[in-house]
Amino acid sequence: MAPWWLWHGLDSSQQECSGLQQCQTKSLLRLQIALNGIEAHKIKRIWWWQRRWPRRIAVKYLHSLLGQWAHLLAAGLPLLACVKLVPMGHAPMRLQYELVQIQQALLAGVSFSQALEQSGLFKPAIVHLVAAGEASGELPALLAKTHEQQTNHEQLKRRFKRSLFMPLVTLISGLLVSLLIVLWVVPQVASLYASAQYQLPVMTQWLMQAASGLQKHSLALLVWPLAVCLGTAWLWSVSSMRLTMELWLWRLPGIGRLMYLHGQAELFLILSLTFNAGVPLLNSLALAANASSWRRISRALTAACTQLEQGQKLSQVWQHMAGLAQTQAQTLQLMRMGEASGDLGLSLDQLQSYYQQQVMSHSQWLEQLLEPILLLLVSTFVGGILIALYLPLFQMGQMM
């Protein structure tokens, strides 16, 4: 079977063009392209694994695509030309391959959103936003706003990861030191105490029992985390259990509140972008339901669409949405103001900004709180082990 080749070149009108073609050799492919009036300046062979790997393209490349498409579309260039003109020479081969596939899909008459969905490059939320932009004619503005919000989100994630780096290093090193003490030091100390005729303190006895249990069940301790992860993944795939697990996640101290706020910010981002672009409210809610990464929010929005069709107001529906148990009074108040003034789009913008600010402030609070908590846990754990080891020495010194 002839291998696949990805080529880039200039046509007879000196316009950039690219394509995918099967051919036995590079020289033969160059000749075939030249017969079509195209001067190829770059030809790369695509191996079978390069069309599927990496499964997920790095976020920096996808954000760059969104930003460049938004700028080119805003400049008035046709969509096909925008896809062709984006330089991705240093991107993974799979991304270059998928971009050519998108070009061919557009030439075949497929919509831009469907071409993106077939490529599997972007999340469903972005695909649905592109579909809304095509329907409303506001695709450049939607792409620009999406690029801006995604960039802010990634910056928040990077900052949060950087702030957690040192606390996690401290926690892992403390656990490793504690494990080394329990598995190596404690058994030797236990053999010394076994010959003595002293009653060991309760704390020391617990430490000896823990060390003995770790040595006897070390294999089980390695298997149990894997079993728990597999079981959790299976429960997450069950629809009814996922709804319950999402509610539990939202109720976790600190991090659960951040997850909930991020879900709300994502929801109102989609609603504000689509509604302000001229998409009807019912269609905006349906798009947000399909794009949401939280099953509870998606189910609640689907039910809200049914109630809106029956003539209820958005604020009335939102007040009784079962999937959003933590709905705040500010949200309902802004919705009522938007309905009363006839400018619901402005209210949705304000809600999106409000929840985005809440995500930022809550993440900063967590960053400042997690480091002392992890340090306190490590010091308590290691200090407890050392105290349990030295208590018998203090007892023997008092009895001598």
Report on the structure:
This protein has 400 residues and is mostly helical. It has a domain at 1-46. 74% of the residues lie in helices and 6% in strands. The chain contains 16 helices and 3 strands. It has helices at residues 26-35, 59-74, 79-85, 93-107, 112-119, 124-136, 139-194, 202-216, 218-237, 239-250, 255-276, 281-291, 295-309, 314-319, 329-341, 344-399; strands at 4-10, 16-22, 39-46. A hairpin with a 5-residue loop joins β1 and β2 (16-22). The model has no long low-confidence stretch (mean pLDDT 82).
Short structural description:
The protein is mainly alpha-helical.
Q: What secondary-structure arrangement, pairings included, does this model have?
A:
Elements: E1 4-10, E2 16-22, H1 26-35, E3 39-46, H2 59-74, H3 79-85, H4 93-107, H5 112-119, H6 124-136, H7 139-194, H8 202-216, H9 218-237, H10 239-250, H11 255-276, H12 281-291, H13 295-309, H14 314-319, H15 329-341, H16 344-399
Antiparallel strand pairs: 1-2, 1-3
Helix pairs in contact: 2-7, 4-5, 5-6, 6-7, 6-12, 7-8, 7-16, 8-16, 11-12, 11-16, 12-13, 15-16
